[in-house]
UniProtKB/TrEMBL annotation, chain A:
The keyword Transmembrane applies. This is Sugar ABC transporter permease. Pfam families: BPD_transp_1. CDD domains: TM_PBP2. Residues 87-298 form the ABC transmembrane type-1 domain. Belongs to the binding-protein-dependent transport system permease family.
From TrEMBL, chain B:
The keyword Protease does not apply. CDD domains: TM_PBP2 (cd06261). GO terms for molecular function: ATP binding. The chain crosses the membrane at residues 12-32, 76-97, 104-128, 140-160, 189-210, 244-265. This is Sugar ABC transporter ATP-binding protein. It is found in: Cell membrane. InterPro entries: MetI-like, MetI-like_sf. Keywords: ATP-binding, Cell membrane, Membrane, Nucleotide-binding, Transmembrane, Transmembrane helix, Transport. It is a multi-pass membrane protein. Its main location: membrane. It comes from Paramesorhizobium deserti.
Length: 310, 280
């Protein structure tokens, strides 16, 4: 980084006023970033410090006591038998979501990248759930997934007895994943479509002349060239999947049993339903560590997987 | 891949896309049509893709059971303030990080980017305590201040910075020679050029605010203060079961206006967001 004084112009230095262009620029820079930086300090960094501080305390809201207990909440974390299930549900949800989301997004992007009349209409329709209010979307799906709801009604027309989707462990998890995939896959689809359109046509032409079949063109040309976008979308999608809350709260409330209680929902329950703010904070730290580790790991992976970076 | 497709292949592709469209389009159709079905028809078998009779009273009940107009206003004005506030904060910060040389710029930028790593769920407990101490629980302040200045605005700042980095330096140098100050350069030259980036920031900020769910249920407790996502879940009977047709009517009222705006301006939406993604 350049030191600001290097940019002072000679003429302003010779008359040596205090407000050189460089100084004025520094001041302007600080003023421009001030709202954002103060916001980050007040609403992100201080809370992050506080959440760690809280996690070292036992906090009884009803008795209004706040006692330092050191690592006790962390011991509780390790011994919490529910947490195994919660982390399992979180992992299944995130993995299922990312795999389904990215593969469906790529499939749709490839379809939309074809020369077909009216393709914009399809693009608009596939994208439309992104702009539908999340809770409205979730409520409709909850309605469709009722035992006597629309989906089982359709299945019954074909003589199939559908399950009670949201009340059985396996189907409940599948349901929350699928509802979320259809809601947001349009975003990744658009990112992939933009990436596909950036692949130079000559590469495909050359491959065709060499007689490479479409499947090999896809593996050898398309995938390597859009790999930066795949990395980007997978990071966004994984971090997003760890934040899922509304869908769980509206569709299953974490049930049946604890089968769809993902980490954020568990954190919410502990802190705001059972008023265990200390333990809730410990769970927040766990969430933070998971997000940080996953992001870092994926960022490292780019060296090995991503073919090139523009 | 860009070769002319054979008519048979075209038919197959259209067929595949129409089947794939069902889970994307049908829920919205089902929401709108079920919202005007009488309660007796709502779970009718076989499912009625087109209602056989209509009951418009569901819509008046939406407004009778809750202060829905007020809740609609809450969501709308919060989203409007958050969107315009974020545009101001993120374009200024993004501009400074991209174009102005000042001490520790890179270090500060890295610290700001930390916000991307810290989802607001992580800090919800201390934020609740902070706003409780400030007497701002059960007000809209947390839903306005945190998104504009906190973690959610960092992505916007990042997008704006990536955009301003690409502006040619000559544009500004000419203005500096003319004696324009930093703020004037930003306001008169850089910002007008940044319209596409600002548009995408506006779109995703609006959607984020409009969809916010965890924060409202943590911070708000009286029906008058509720935002739409929270209000939608409150249409329940005495046993806590959802009143489906009324919920769906309220959901329709929530979803349709945004959907209509999207369909009118879909090009700007889709291309704006694609642009963001490529740069981001």
């Amino acid at each position: 980084m350049a030191v600001a004084q290097d940019h002072a112009r000679p003429e302003s230095r010779s008359s040596s006023p205090f407000w050189t262009i460089a100084r004025r620029d520094s001041l302007a820079g600080f003023l421009f970033i001030a709202p954002q930086v103060i916001g980050i300090i007040v609403f992100v960094l201080i809370p992050l410090g506080l959440v760690f501080w809280y996690s070292l305390h036992e906090w009884n809201v009803l008795a209004n006591t706040f006692t330092y207990t050191g690592a006790q909440n962390y011991r509780m974390l390790i011994e919490d038998t529910n947490l195994v299930e919660v982390l399992g549900a979180t992992a299944i949800f995130s993995a299922g979501l990312v795999v389904l989301n990215l593969s469906l997004a790529l499939l749709l992007a490839v379809l939309l990248n074809q020369k077909l009349a009216g393709i914009t209409i399809f693009r608009t329709l596939f994208f439309s759930p992104v702009v539908v209010s999340l809770v409205a979307w979730t409520i409709v799906w909850g309605f469709l997934l009722q035992k006597n709801g629309g989906i089982n009604g359709m299945l019954q027309v074909f003589g199939i007895e559908g399950p009670n989707w949201l009340r059985e462990e396996t189907t409940a998890m599948i349901s929350v994943i699928v509802v979320q995939v259809f809601k947001n896959v349009g975003l990744n689809m658009i990112l992939f479509l933009a990436a596909l359109q950036g692949v130079p046509n000559e590469l495909y032409e050359a491959a065709r002349i060499d007689g490479a079949p479409a499947s090999r063109q896809f593996r050898r040309i398309t995938l390597p060239l859009i790999s930066p976008t795949i990395l980007l979308t997978s990071i966004i999608t994984i971090v997003g999947s760890l934040q899922v809350f509304a869908q769980i709260a509206v569709l299953t409330q974490g049930g049946p049993g604890m089968s769809t209680t993902v980490l954020v929902y568990y954190l919410y329950q502990q802190a705001f339903q059972f008023h265990l703010f200390g333990y809730g904070s410990t769970l927040s730290i766990l969430l933070f560590v998971i997000v940080a580790v996953l992001t870092f790991a994926q960022w490292q992976m780019r060296k090995r997987i991503v073919f090139y970076e523009s | 891949m860009k070769a002319e497709l054979s008519p048979r292949l075209k038919t197959v592709l259209y067929g595949v896309m129409c089947v794939l469209l069902i889970p994307f389009v049908f829920p919205t159709w089902w929401m709108v049509t079920s919202s005007v079905k009488p309660i007796s028809d709502i779970f009718a078998f076989p499912p009625q893709l087109i209602p056989r009779s209509y009951d418009w009273t569901t819509y008046s009940k939406v407004f009778e059971l809750q202060p829905f107009v007020r809740q609609y206003w809450n969501s709308a004005y919060i989203a409007a303030i958050v969107t315009s506030g974020t545009m101001v904060v993120s374009s200024m910060a993004g501009y400074a990080f991209a174009r102005i040389r000042f001490p520790f710029a890179n270090t500060i930028f890295m610290i700001v980017l930390l916000g991307l790593l810290i989802p607001s769920e992580v800090t919800i407990v201390p934020l609740f305590q902070m706003f409780l101490k400030a007497g701002m629980v059960n007000t809209h302040w947390p839903l306005i201040l945190v998104p504009i200045f906190g973690a959610p605005s960092v992505f916007a700042t990042f997008v704006m910075r990536q955009f301003f980095v690409t502006l040619p330096a000559e544009l500004e140098e000419a203005a500096r020679v003319d004696g324009l100050g930093r703020f004037k350069i930003f306001r008169k030259i850089a910002l007008p050029l940044a319209k596409p980036a600002l548009a995408s920031v506006a779109i995703f900020t609006f959607l984020h605010s409009w969809n916010l769910f965890l924060e409202p249920i943590v911070f708000l407790s009286s029906a008058n203060k509720f935002t739409l996502p929270q209000a939608l879940t409150q249409y329940t009977d005495a046993y806590g079961g959802p009143m489906w047709n009324i919920q769906l009517a309220a959901a329709t009222l929530t979803a349709l206006p945004v959907l209509i705006v999207f369909i009118i301006a879909q090009k700007q939406f889709v291309e704006g967001l694609a642009h963001t993604g490529l740069k981001g």
